[in-house]
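Open question from group meeting: does this chain pack into something compact, or does most of it stay loose? Before anyone orders reagents, we agreed to write out a predicted structure and look at it together. Recording both the input and the output here so the notebook holds the full record.
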Amino acid sequence: MARTTTLGKHQSTKFVFICVALLGFALIADLLWASSSSSSAYLYGVSSSNWPLQESHNFIPPHLHNTTATKGNKDTLPQRVVLSATFADLPAPELEWEEMAAAPVPRLDGAALQIKDLLFVFAGYGTIDYVHSHVDIYNFTDNTWGGRFDMPKEMAHSHLGMATDGRYIYVVTGQYGPQCRGPTARTFVLDTETKKWQDMPNLPVPRYAPATQLWKGRLHVMGGSKENRYTPGLEHWSLAVKNGKALEKEWRSEIPIPRGGPHRACVTANNRLYVIGGQEGDFMAKPGSPIYKCSRRNEKWSVTGKLPYRVKTTLVGFWNGWLYFTSGQRDRGPDNPAPRKVIGQMWRTKLHL
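Structure tokens returned:
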């Protein structure tokens, strides 16, 4: 009996010793891993900025703000912060940006169109609970804002479709109200010389942020998001217009767009209609937007330069070789793509294309 008790104590002591040894080995391995992770993150940031590795779907931001204190040591070690490579900035040349007169109000998801040296800026969120229902005008020549006037009460406040013929601005559908409210099918036209609004035939169904453009005497509206805000729409409609007036009472169905979704750019060139970029569904936009240019000779894209900071859904104009942008929403930094402040600053840079 005594022998059995002694053997049990011996086995218990041996088991405790093995557990302590394993814990010690794990602690040493963890310290070595933390040291190597810190070093590799530093070299990674120096050698390739914050461009994600080709074989990885994640990247480590160069500025690690989160720290963890080691037990019994007041010094801190940086935590490993890993984000999807979707949020990495692209390497690009630095541009010299000049801050101009700020917009009268901050805006997110508004809209803007340029006519000569004037930028007409429409609607948008001020905060998630407040939307603007007016138009501000920026003058590129004298760097001033002015000429504010109201929009129709029935007009959408964000996610607008918009096109111009150089005098009249056509405003199609969009979200009515703050938060994530439903869309409206109402459509209007603005005479920018008289600042007068007129009704247009309603779109067949409401849409969020459809691609909109004038082409061959017709106002084309494509894609956008459906009424649930998430499902991409594929429908394509057109309406004959001239000098700010609709020449037809109803929209005509056209060939559907192959892939729909909101926030897509739309331009015409060489008698063709181009739809570029955008979203499918409703998700966080990629921060750190670089500026691109496209060479039509070889149809390749190249990076022209960086913005002064990371921002999404800006409103843009171009005048006398200067690229301007205003408004939008910033994120919380290179290691946190969560949305932050809605802004109203205006910036410009001289482009050498």
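Observations to bring back to the group:
Confidence is low (pLDDT under 50) at residues 1-10, 25-57, 63-70, 283-291.
The longest helix spans residues 2-48.
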